[in-house]
């Protein structure tokens, strides 16, 4: 006889419908890869319409010879398979104080999958990069109006040449062993490991090598850290993910019986690897080291962690987690506040009650 668990399934949490933005039920994700049904969805515009049956990938700009690749061409190149975290730059935006405008993501604008594709470097080298090239612009088929500029724009982002030429930056055509689902970028999606997911452009339309700085609105206006509310002083681009952690169990505001409980969650970083996760049960006065489970983890994936807690006394408790990485970065007690609400990575916390 099947248990209840076999038919009770979590669902995405809807943040908006037009465009579709859905949050992964991260507290209920127990596997190292997230299937397309539960993988978070982030869109700036409505889903694009384009000719699937006659799809070609052009590469032009500052190259010695423009190229046009068919899907069969891409399948013939050496492939690379990588398991990576994709985290929206606005993940946890709802937690900022003072509040910031934008999609009010909680903790579920993050998922993990295995992507397969051809290194972008191979395609760029086949086109021949001209001397003086600085950036590689990837434009998607998705586009729409921007109210701040009174104009229609495509979603396009650039990578510095060094990042574009990294052997792990790929043009992906598979997601968890299957063709990429349409909602996640079919037929081709850029995957830029360790950077926030705004860099991993979906539904690729064309790639352009530039000898100047790209200034599209999703590069120069959005996905920029603005530390000051009313001016652009000290602005800097959003790039690699911050070190971060999320408590999955118990759930926030759970009521628990006295006894032994397992506190667990995930931790990830955009530089190096996670070296330590700590848990506090006394509002941050003392910290205890959690156990990190590295089975199945890779260079770009999250790690799972757990801590055994014996709760003997009744009352309310604040459970906190903080991660550290190999570049000596540690989650701060307070987030770096910025006007558009990117990169939240303050110490995670929940509250529970022991009865």
UniProtKB/TrEMBL annotation:
Alphabetical GO biological process terms? sulfur compound metabolic process
Q: Spell out the Pfam families in the cross-references.
A: Mo-co_dimer (PF03404), Oxidored_molyb (PF00174)
PANTHER family per the UniProt record, alphabetical: SULFITE OXIDASE, MITOCHONDRIAL, SULFITE REDUCTASE
InterPro entries, sorted: Ig_E-set, MoCF_OxRdtse_dimer, Mopterin_OxRdtase_euk, OxRdtase_Mopterin-bd_dom, OxRdtase_Mopterin-bd_sf
Decide whether keyword rRNA-binding is in the record.
no
- UniProt keyword annotations, A-Z: Metal-binding, Molybdenum, Oxidoreductase
UniProt protein name = Molybdenum-dependent oxidoreductase-like protein
- What residue stretches are annotated with the Moybdenum cofactor oxidoreductase dimerisation domain? 238-353
